[in-house]
Amino acid sequence: MDLGIAGKWALVCGASKGLGFGCAQALVREGVNVVIGARGPEALQAAAERLLADPLRPAGAQVLAVAGDVTTEAGRAALFAVPGGPGVNFDIVVTNAGGPPPGDFRDWDREAWIKALDANMLTPIELIKATIDGMAERGFGRIVNITSSSVKSPIDILGLSNGARSGLTGFVAGVARSSIAAKGVTLNNLLPGKFDTDRIATTLAAASKKTGQSVEAIRASQQAQIPAGRYGRPDEFGAICAFLCSTHAAYLTGQNILPDGGAYPGTY
C-alpha cells in the first residue's frame, strides 16, 4: 500500500532506538524526509547511519540527526533549525520521551512531578503548538504521541507516568476535535504495551535482581500473560505509526490506539 506521504517532512523524537527508531524507520521506508532527535549523540548518529543504509529507503529520503534535550526550549529550537530541514514546517510530528521512573507516590516531591510533566505532557504540547497551525494552513498534518498502555490501565508504581500521560491524553482529545480537524490535521496517541526494547531489558534486569528469578523466567512469565504470547517488535509499532501518518488515516483523529498484543482486558 502506498501511504501517500513520500516527500513529506517528519520530526521523530526519541528516535535513536526502540519505538522511536521503529517509527523513523517506517517513515523513511515510505520516502519521508526525517529529522530524528535524541539526547545521546553517538547513539543518534548510529541510528541515522542505519536509516540511511536501509535497503528499503528510497534514494531521495533524507535523514537529519539533531542531538539535544527536547524538553528544553533550546533543544526544540535546534530541531527546528537543523540545516536542510523544514524549520517548523513539519508535515508529521511524532512525540516521544522516556517514561518517568517507577516508585511510591509518597516519595515524589514537586520536582519529580514537574520533571514528569515536562517530559511527558508539556513538551509534546510545545511541539504541537509550534507546528499545528502551519499544518492547518498547508492542509495536511499528522501528529502522533507515543504515550503508554498505562493511560488505559494504570500501573500503581508508575504514578508519574499515569498522571502526566493522562494529562496529555485529555489535552489531545480537545485539540483533535477543534477547528483543525476540518483542515486536514489529525492528532492521535499510540499507547504501547510491552515491546522488546532496551526499556524492557532494563526492567527485566531490575525485577531479576529484586526477586532472585532469572531474566529468562520473568520474561517467559510476562509473555505468557499476553494473549499474543510474546512482546511486540519496534518495527510493528513503527508500521502502525506510519499508517496513522498516511493519507489513508485522514478520518482517524483524537484516538488512543493500543498495540499491546491483547493484554488490556477491557471492552472499551
Kindly summarize this structure in a few lines.
α1 crosses α8 and α4 (110-138) packs parallel to α5. It contains eight helices and seven strands, in the order βαβαβαβαβαβαααβ.
Structural class: alpha/beta
Sheet with most strands: strand arrangement: 3-2-1-4-5-6-7
Q: How many DSSP-defined strands?
A: 7
Rounded average pLDDT: 95
Shape: globular
H and E string: EHEHEHEHEHEHHHE
Task: Report the portion of residues in β strands.
Answer: 5-15%
Taking all Cα atoms into account, the compactness measure Rg is: 18 Å
Q: Can you tell me the residue ranges where pLDDT is under 50 for at least 5 consecutive residues? A: none
Task: Explain how this protein is built.
InterPro entries: NAD(P)-bd_dom_sf, SDR, SDR_fam. By secondary structure, the protein is of the alpha/beta class. The protein has eight helices and seven strands. β2 (33-38), α2 and β3 form a beta-alpha-beta unit. α1 crosses α8 (234-244). The model has no long low-confidence stretch (mean pLDDT 95).
